[in-house]
């Protein structure tokens, strides 16, 4: 019972952090929302019994990548007037689309009843998924990390090219 409550708590915290990343305006607040999302996902992983992934989530993403991103954000010129507003102008459309998505997911969850598994089929679990992921797809996962670093470098290059002006 307590595991289910914690799972829902971490899942909603991750969802809330993801939504805040979309609507907040200041880059440092967005980075803090991303840190909260990653910590919540680590909690979900830990509750699912994938403790190695949970530790990697905290050490690698929260510990290393986010420190790097916060350092880059500190290099941004915060005297820009666009950072004065707390929320983005996309707040209202984001809330509307989020409410529509939540409604659609709720209807889909209530309407669809999964069929019982056929006799002789092994149940799906985290362990087989983790084994397949770490054997077959680890390279793509690491390439995604490299892509994120390239995106940060490109964002810095664009900011330096524009000289800090907006537009």
Q: What does this 3D model show about the protein?
A:
By secondary structure, the chain is an all-alpha fold. It has 6 helices and no strands. It has helices spanning 2-23, 27-47, 51-75, 91-111, 126-136, 138-162. Helix 2 (27-47) runs antiparallel to helix 3 (51-75). The longest helix is centred in the middle third of the chain and has 25 residues, at 51-75. It is globular, with a radius of gyration of 20 Å. The mean pLDDT is 79.
Q: What is the H-and-E element order?
A: HHHHHH
How many beta-strand elements? 0
Oligomer type: single chain
In round numbers, the mean pLDDT is 79
Shape: globular
Distance between the termini: 52 Å
- Total helices: the number is 6
Q: How much strand content do the residues show? A: under 5%
Radius of gyration: 20 Å
What structural category characterises the helix and strand content?
mainly alpha
Unreliable residue stretches: none
Task: Indicate the percent of residues in helices.
Answer: over 70%
Largest sheet: none
């Amino acid at each position: 019972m307590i595991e289910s409550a914690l799972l829902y708590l971490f899942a909603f915290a991750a969802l809330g952090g993801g939504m805040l990343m979309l609507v907040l305006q200041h880059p440092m607040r967005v980075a803090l929302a991303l840190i909260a999302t990653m910590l919540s996902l680590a909690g979900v992983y830990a509750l699912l019994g994938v403790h190695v992934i949970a530790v990697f989530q905290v050490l690698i993403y929260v510990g290393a990548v986010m420190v790097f991103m916060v350092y880059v954000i500190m290099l941004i010129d915060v005297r820009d007037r666009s950072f004065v507003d707390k929320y983005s102008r996309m707040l209202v459309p984001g809330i509307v689309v989020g409410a529509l998505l939540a409604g659609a997911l709720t209807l889909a969850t209530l309407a669809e009843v999964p069929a019982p598994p056929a006799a002789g089929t092994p149940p799906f679990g985290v362990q087989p998924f983790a084994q397949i992921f770490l054997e077959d797809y680890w390279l793509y996962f690491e390439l995604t990390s490299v892509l994120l670093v390239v995106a940060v470098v490109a964002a810095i290059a664009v900011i330096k090219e524009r000289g800090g002006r907006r537009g």
